[in-house]
Amino acid sequence: MNEQLTIAMPKGRIFTEAVDLLRNAGFNLPPEFDDSRKLIIDVEEENFRFILAKPMDVATYVEHGVADLGIAGKDVLLEEERDVYELLDLKISGCYLAVAGIPDTKMNDVAPKIATKYPNIAAAYFREQGEQVEIIKLNGSIELAPLIGLADRIVDIVSTGRTLKENGLVEYETITNVTSRLIVNPVSYRIKDERISELVKRLNEVI
Amino acid sequence: MSRLFMFEKPLGMRDTLPELHEAKDKVRSSIEKEMKQWGFQFIETPALEYYETVGTASAILDQQLFKLLDQQGHTLVLRPDMTAPIARVAASKLFKDQVPLRLAYSANVYRAQQREGGRPAEFEQIGVECIGDESVSADGEMISLAISSLKKAGLEEFQLSVGHVGFVNELFVQILGTEERARELTKFLYEKNYVGYREHVKALPLSSIDSQRLLAFLELRGGPEVIGKASELIENGKGRAALDELKLLWEIIEDFGESSRIKFDLTIVSHMSYYTGILFEVYAGMVGFPIGNGGRYDKLLEKFGKSTGATGFAIRLDRLLESLGNLGEPEPVTCILFSPERRKEAYQLALHRREAGERVILQDISSVRNLDACSDTFANVVYLVGKEGVQ
């Protein structure tokens, strides 16, 4: 019953909010947890093992079953389409995916280019709009692309809109809202069902 | 989904090296033996089939099929599973006298990977199909045989989750009114997206009782008490029949003495349209993916022109090996190093020992450059070198 649960946590912005949420749910996580540089942290008291991964990779660890659970943004789940259970909307780290570009510009008629960290989401979105676009995958600082002429539009995460504004870009369309989700490996969901159900229940009470 | 990096090379093709090959052989033969003891007959079918027949009938998604063209321009597929080819053979040849047919196979199947490695695109499945038996007894037999086979293979810790798509369908249609709306909701289950499922239910114009029924459906996981809980959600008719089937199934597995391995999970759908009744997945610790799955597919045979029920299951040999962990010690091999003048003696010794069941290599010593490495490689080394009597 009390098997260890391995939880993949996203490093960075979502991490703090996720840790707060777990603490609110009554899980006893040590104070040094927050600023540790370790990638694997065992919390023996709760019989948890946390692994700290890049947000984009959390769903991968969970799909392959090396982590039982994970906390991942809906953006990651949409982009990666991993075979995992999406059990709970944790309602933390809210933001949205949007199409942005230089104000008052039109997309190139012949071969409009879209720069993004999310090639699959961007491709699916423009296909639904009936527009043929070319996707350019970037790994960060997406705002640069339209400014220096790499792309007509970008598809990126927007939380406050400040980065866009400071770089003179405007939003054209909102694609979808994004919050963090609790995801579970399908085998763990069955084999460790009692512990996972309890965790879900406790989290659900504090969301 | 068109991704620029899709299919750049055949991802997921793997070699099986001697140690793994031997472990695989052992596991395969122990399972095959068990299946034969249960009266299942093994068959082989070709690796290539027509896309139009077996390809489209199979449960595997179109984008996972390896396709090629034959000389006449027909599209062919590398078989993505064995169920559809067996249904083809059964419908056209074997299933004649309305006597349930029990067939088995162990074969490589092919599924193209769309994204990355870490998963093989060619792997071996061992499985059975029971064709022409529409009773729950047949479903029970499948589950019992799956359990028995895995135990014979040496797997100790594993668990099966059993669902029933007939129940899901009936409940959803009862509440939502149409097949189409039921299908829409089922898609969330298929995609394992419970957050989306709940949001979708809450957005539907339903009475609070009905939306509560749909939300409570997600909790239908656990022991036999789940059947009782499920019957509170359903009104009557077919859904009730599905639950009666599950109840009977539980009794069958209890009689078989393995009910502790079974849990019910009515949220399992596995596929959007393939399965028609009881279905199950097999999980083992240490492996993040199901090691096997099965279920009833009463509509498949129709596609090949015979209308009869069928049920079966398949075990993924690669994942089973992974969950067994330790591959076990390889069989010891004796190496007889001989020089030409004692070749005959060496041959006779080898013959003698091989007959006694030992694995024996005959190696001309003149081809061995590093004798130390040679003696490290083999469990025993016998030198038959130089004149008689000198070892």
From TrEMBL, chain A:
<comment type="subunit">
    <text>Heteromultimer composed of HisG and HisZ subunits.</text>
</comment>
<dbReference type="InterPro" id="IPR001348">
    <property type="entry name" value="ATP_PRibTrfase_HisG"/>
</dbReference>
<dbReference type="GO" id="GO:0005524">
    <property type="term" value="F:ATP binding"/>
</dbReference>
<dbReference type="InterPro" id="IPR018198">
    <property type="entry name" value="ATP_PRibTrfase_CS"/>
</dbReference>
<keyword id="KW-0328">Glycosyltransferase</keyword>
<dbReference type="GO" id="GO:0003879">
    <property type="term" value="F:ATP phosphoribosyltransferase activity"/>
</dbReference>
<dbReference type="GO" id="GO:0000105">
    <property type="term" value="P:L-histidine biosynthetic process"/>
</dbReference>
<dbReference type="Pfam" id="PF01634">
    <property type="entry name" value="HisG"/>
</dbReference>
<dbReference type="InterPro" id="IPR013820">
    <property type="entry name" value="ATP_PRibTrfase_cat"/>
</dbReference>
<keyword id="KW-0028">Amino-acid biosynthesis</keyword>
<keyword id="KW-0808">Transferase</keyword>
<dbReference type="InterPro" id="IPR024893">
    <property type="entry name" value="ATP_PRibTrfase_HisG_short"/>
</dbReference>
<protein>
    <recommendedName>
        <fullName>ATP phosphoribosyltransferase</fullName>
        <ecNumber>2.4.2.17</ecNumber>
    </recommendedName>
</protein>
<feature type="domain" description="ATP phosphoribosyltransferase catalytic">
    <location>
        <begin position="54"/>
        <end position="204"/>
    </location>
</feature>
<dbReference type="GO" id="GO:0005737">
    <property type="term" value="C:cytoplasm"/>
</dbReference>
<comment type="similarity">
    <text>Belongs to the ATP phosphoribosyltransferase family. Short subfamily.</text>
</comment>
<keyword id="KW-0963">Cytoplasm</keyword>
<comment type="function">
    <text>Catalyzes the condensation of ATP and 5-phosphoribose 1-diphosphate to form N'-(5'-phosphoribosyl)-ATP (PR-ATP). Has a crucial role in the pathway because the rate of histidine biosynthesis seems to be controlled primarily by regulation of HisG enzymatic activity.</text>
</comment>
<keyword id="KW-0368">Histidine biosynthesis</keyword>
<keyword id="KW-0547">Nucleotide-binding</keyword>
<comment type="pathway">
    <text>Amino-acid biosynthesis; L-histidine biosynthesis; L-histidine from 5-phospho-alpha-D-ribose 1-diphosphate: step 1/9.</text>
</comment>
<keyword id="KW-0067">ATP-binding</keyword>
From TrEMBL, chain B:
<keyword id="KW-0028">Amino-acid biosynthesis</keyword>
<keyword id="KW-0808">Transferase</keyword>
<dbReference type="GO" id="GO:0004821">
    <property type="term" value="F:histidine-tRNA ligase activity"/>
</dbReference>
<comment type="subunit">
    <text>Heteromultimer composed of HisG and HisZ subunits.</text>
</comment>
<comment type="function">
    <text>Required for the first step of histidine biosynthesis. May allow the feedback regulation of ATP phosphoribosyltransferase activity by histidine.</text>
</comment>
<keyword id="KW-0328">Glycosyltransferase</keyword>
<dbReference type="GO" id="GO:0000105">
    <property type="term" value="P:L-histidine biosynthetic process"/>
</dbReference>
<feature type="binding site">
    <location>
        <begin position="81"/>
        <end position="83"/>
    </location>
    <ligand>
        <name>L-histidine</name>
    </ligand>
</feature>
<feature type="binding site">
    <location>
        <position position="111"/>
    </location>
    <ligand>
        <name>L-histidine</name>
    </ligand>
</feature>
<dbReference type="GO" id="GO:0016757">
    <property type="term" value="F:glycosyltransferase activity"/>
</dbReference>
<comment type="pathway">
    <text>Amino-acid biosynthesis; L-histidine biosynthesis; L-histidine from 5-phospho-alpha-D-ribose 1-diphosphate: step 1/9.</text>
</comment>
<feature type="domain" description="Aminoacyl-transfer RNA synthetases class-II family profile">
    <location>
        <begin position="26"/>
        <end position="340"/>
    </location>
</feature>
<dbReference type="InterPro" id="IPR053846">
    <property type="entry name" value="HisZ-C"/>
</dbReference>
<dbReference type="GO" id="GO:0006427">
    <property type="term" value="P:histidyl-tRNA aminoacylation"/>
</dbReference>
<dbReference type="GO" id="GO:0005737">
    <property type="term" value="C:cytoplasm"/>
</dbReference>
<keyword id="KW-0368">Histidine biosynthesis</keyword>
<dbReference type="InterPro" id="IPR045864">
    <property type="entry name" value="aa-tRNA-synth_II/BPL/LPL"/>
</dbReference>
<protein>
    <recommendedName>
        <fullName>ATP phosphoribosyltransferase regulatory subunit</fullName>
    </recommendedName>
</protein>
<dbReference type="Pfam" id="PF21996">
    <property type="entry name" value="HisZ-like"/>
</dbReference>
<dbReference type="GO" id="GO:0140096">
    <property type="term" value="F:catalytic activity, acting on a protein"/>
</dbReference>
<dbReference type="InterPro" id="IPR004517">
    <property type="entry name" value="HisZ"/>
</dbReference>
<keyword id="KW-0963">Cytoplasm</keyword>
